[in-house]
Each structure stands twice: as C-alpha cells, then as structure tokens.
Write a structure and sequence with these properties.
With about 475 residues, the chain is an alpha+beta fold. It contains 9 helices and 23 strands. The strands form 6 sheets. It has a 6-stranded mixed β-sheet, covered by helices on one side. The chain has a 6-stranded mixed β-sheet with strand order 16-17-20-23-19-18. It is found in: Secreted.
C-alpha cells in the first residue's frame, strides 16, 4: 500500500509584480544564506537538525536535472525561448531546510516571493525523485497552451484537471536553476492525515514561474528567441551556453548557422589574407566567411578572437566595401544574411587581486550584478600562495587572487579560461580548504570589504556592466 501527493506553488500576481522580486538578487541571496547558515554544524539554532551530508544523493540529483531538461526540450507546442536548466547548490540548501521541517505546505514564507517550488510526498514502496518529476510533467495532459492571439493582454488559464501548476513551473522558460532535497519525515500531517516515515521531496526554482496571466514559454522554432547572453547556443531545443565553436578562416555562415540565433565562434589568427570571400557590409550574405566578415566589420583583427553572430532572413541586397584590409563584394538580389557582434572581455593576470564594488538593486537583473569579466592565463596554479593567496571556499574574500580562486572553486582548470565574477556582501568567516591542488586560507576577521563568487564555468556572458 502506498500514497503519493504533489502540490505546486502558484504566484497570485500580475506580471508587473515580477519586477519587485528579481531572481538571484541580493535580497534573495541574503534570505537563502540564512537558511544555509542554519544548516551548518556550528549554526546557532539548536532546534534545526545538524547536517553531516547532502540531503540528496548525487545520482538522484543528476537524474532530476537530466529529466527536467529532457522534458523542457520536448514541450508541445515547441518553445522558442526555453532555457537549459542547471543545478543550484543554494536552492538545494533552502530546499533541505524546508524538507527537514516536515510541513506539508509551501515555505518558508519569506522566500516564496523569490522562488518557485514544487512539493511531493509518498510512503510505502520506493519511488525515485524522478518519478515525482515525471508526475509533475504529466499534468501537461490537462493543460492547454495559450497562444499569443489569445492573450489580450493576459493569457487565459486552461487547466481541465485538478492542478497544472507543477507542469507550468517545470517548463517555465526563464526558470534556469533548480535545487532539490529529499527527507524522510518520521511524522508529517498531509491534509489532516498523519503519515509516518514519509519521503518528502522539495524542489526550489529560480527565477520563479507560474505568474498568472502569462504563458509558460514563447512558442516557435526552438532556440529562435533565446536571450542574447546565451550567444546563440542551442542544445536539444534549449537555449544553452556552450563552448564557442572553433572554426577555420574559410568557414561560411551557411555551413554553421541554424535558426534565427547562431552560435558563438572562435576565429583563428591570420584570416586577413585567406581566400574566404565576403559579400556585403554590415549585413553579410550567408555564403560569406564568418571570420573575414568579422575582420571586415572590425569585430576582430588578424589575431582572431570570439565573434557572436545573428541571422537575418531575406535581406534585399548586399553592398561592397573595402574595410580593415578585407574587400567585400556586391550582390543585388535578396538572400539570407547575418550580422556580427563583439564579445567583450577584460584580460587579467594571475596576480591581480579582487577589490571591486558593485551597485546592487532589487530592480536590477542578474547581468547588472556581474561586476567584472576576466580571462585567466594558464599555470596560475603554480604561483606561490604568499604572492597570490586564496581566502575562502566557494565564496572568497576580496583579497584573493582571481585566477587561483577560480581554479580552487573548479570554475576553470589550470589551463586558464574565462570567468564571470559576482560581488556579495562580506561574510563573517571564510573556510580554508584544499581543492584542485590549491590550499585556501581560513579567515575570521571583519577587515575584508566584500566577497566574490564565481559564476560561469569556462565561459562568459558576453556582457559588461
């Protein structure tokens, strides 16, 4: 004999209210940090159970994440702006805190306006967490997608079953982070009935979804309306921040570009004198060499570099010009075109130290909080700690070497790479750990002005504050 129940959080507010609690804002992190601190072994709240290990097995975590992305990429009608979802440790920690309370309701209340949340509970025979995720998605059979012409301006709610909000949160296009926890509750009151030894699953989402009057995603060709920060990357119908594709000087746009948004490309050096032809100025015919068009427009020079490309269908004509040493040709008939844009970045060395300030506002989006973008060279791991110290673990003090802290955190390897940095409020203490060949220092003084956390994994947003 077994039972299982799920509930999902529905946000009762107009879309304008979404701007009041932006995802990953300073306020959200401060709230979540409180629950994180309560789970630490040295926490001050004695009534909160101590946590000696993660509240979810690695295999369950991977299964949950992979299933989320598989289901998000398979929605019908197809989504044009569905973002790839990643695991978020802080969302996991806040989910752990709530799961351990064994209360069959959404919570904690001060966090609910900033996150989405799906809950499930069962007792009896074993059910994997992925079983509940699939059950949430299966509400799709009772949901009718509201097409744009039906939203005037608010979209109608069309759920013919008891609940569809698990499904809509799971496939909310702009929700790109999830963190879950599983806890065995010795006793939990489920709508008036006490269950013993029940398995409680809590999944927290950010940015939150389920805004009344809005469709969960935009319909259209997959990845055709991805946010610019994805650089045109697409994986399994999801907007994805992938590694830039390394191409040759002669590679044509028509050979690489698919959809309205195209990938980010890494052009080699010495393309200036290669044979790849270019048609047009500003707007280039898709038969043009990507890298030589980028040189023509001035996005890169003969040393090569990263280029973002966006496609434009059915451009009327292409005008010739000689610019930056590249001669382009004319074509006076319509054809598919593309534009090139610069990928901004700042280059630092191993011994540059973090000492920056960011202006936080509840009304800024996450890109406004990215303070600095760096490129770390190879072999920073070999710099001595007295010359390039690292203070902290995961979150680092502002006296740390950027590149060695990035290696310590696992964001980049010893071979170097790009890193996005996010400034946080200073912490009371910083842990010292040995990770990835670097021993970080422990620090308990309040002298440090701020903290830094590394966001991107061997890639960057392409935007500067």
């Amino acid at each position: 004999m077994h039972s299982l129940i799920s509930i999902a959080l529905l946000f009762l507010g107009a879309s304008l209210a979404a701007s009041l609690f932006l995802p990953d804002s300073l306020e959200l992190r401060q709230i979540m940090q409180r629950y994180q601190d309560e789970l630490e072994p040295n926490g001050t709240k004695a009534d909160v159970p101590l946590r000696s290990r993660r509240a979810i097995r690695w295999s369950d975590r991977e299964e949950i994440l992979q299933l989320h992305n598989k289901l998000r990429g398979a929605v019908y009608p197809t989504a044009s702006n569905m973002e790839y979802m990643v695991w978020d440790d802080e969302l996991e920690k806040s989910a752990t805190y709530w799961a351990e309370q064994c209360q069959w309701e959404h919570g904690p209340k001060d966090l609910l306006m900033s996150i989405g949340q799906n809950l499930a509970v069962h007792w009896g025979r074993y059910r994997s967490p992925a079983y509940h995720v699939q059950a949430w998605y299966d509400e799709e059979k009772d949901y009718t997608y509201p097409y744009p012409h039906e939203c005037n301006p608010w979209c109608p709610e069309r759920c013919s079953g008891p609940m569809c909000t698990h499904y809509t949160q799971l496939v909310w296009a702009t929700t790109n982070r999830v963190g879950c926890a599983v806890h065995t509750c010795s006793r939990i009151n489920v709508w008036g009935e006490v269950w013993e030894n029940a398995i409680y699953l809590v999944c927290n989402y950010s940015p939150k979804g389920n805004w009344i009057g809005e469709a969960p995603y935009q319909t259209g060709r997959p990845c055709s309306q991805c946010p610019p920060s994805y650089g045109g990357g697409c994986r399994n119908n999801l907007c994805y921040k992938g590694e830039p594709q390394i191409i040759k000087c002669e590679t044509k746009m028509r050979d690489k570009c698919k959809g309205a948004a195209c990938n980010r490309y890494n052009c080699p050096a010495n393309c200036l004198n290669k044979k790849g032809k270019v048609w047009g100025t500003l707007y280039y015919d898709v038969q043009s060499s990507i890298c030589r068009a980028a040189i023509h427009y001035g996005i890169i020079d003969n040393n090569g570099g990263l280029v973002d490309v966006t496609r434009k269908d059915n451009f009327p004509f292409f005008v010739k010009a000689t610019k930056n040493g590249v001669e382009s040709f004319s074509k006076y008939k319509p054809g598919n075109a593309f534009t090139v844009s610069r990928v901004e970045g700042e280059y630092f060395y191993c011994l540059i130290f973090i000492n920056i300030e960011c202006k936080y506002s509840l009304f800024y989006n996450i890109k406004s909080e990215i303070c600095i973008l760096v490129f770390c060279p190879a072999n920073c791991i070999n710099e001595p700690s007295y010359w390039a110290p690292v203070v902290g673990s995961n979150i680092y003090g502002d006296g740390s070497s950027i590149c060695r802290a990035a290696i310590h955190s696992g964001v980049i390897k010893a071979s170097g790479g790009y890193v996005d940095l996010l400034a946080l409020d200073k912490r009371k203490s910083y842990a010292g750990t040995l990770k990835n060949g670097i021993q970080s220092e422990r620090y308990t003084s309040s002298a440090l002005d701020s903290s830094l956390r590394f966001l991107s994994v061997t890639q960057f947003s392409g935007q500067k504050p």
